[in-house]
Amino acid sequence: MHVMEALDMRGRLTMRISDAQGRTIGSVAADNNIVLTGRDLVAKLFIKETIDPVSFVAVGTGSAPVTPSDAALKTELFRKPINTPNASQNLSTTQDFKKKVTVTADLDFSQGNGALTEAGLFNAAVGGVMYNRVVFPTINKTSDFKLTLIWEIVF
Hints:
The protein has helices at 36-46, 87-90, and strands at residues 10-18, 24-34, 56-60, 76-81, 91-93, 99-107, 114-122, 130-141, 146-154. By secondary structure, it is mainly beta. It has one domain (10-154). It has a 9-stranded antiparallel beta sheet with strand order 4-3-7-8-2-1-9-6-5. The two termini are 25 Å apart.
């Protein structure tokens, strides 16, 4: 008997819209694509190359479809550090025995305002390696609400 496993990294971004009282007033979810630069970043872990971890989220206004060769957002608008991960809360095992990591970032009322259509995870405050990119229906981010980005990435 020959056992074969298909292992492919995948992710999903959920964007939660909250009002000034902290109530969720809407949400949008979209599957994301792990781009070649992100796959390269993970592969380097296996050859013990020193790499900076994914630690920033960026949002933008680009709407071009994702391609594997994307190395940056099409039109980056705002970038900030992800919330500090907690291994016991942010790392879990799925029912089908895969590992899932959850990372989040909050765009406060005055942050990232504009007609947002794309997002990605990066390993630097400027430039750096883009791990993934997702394009989603326009969210007209204003100072009237806070936007929480929640990424679930499965390995």
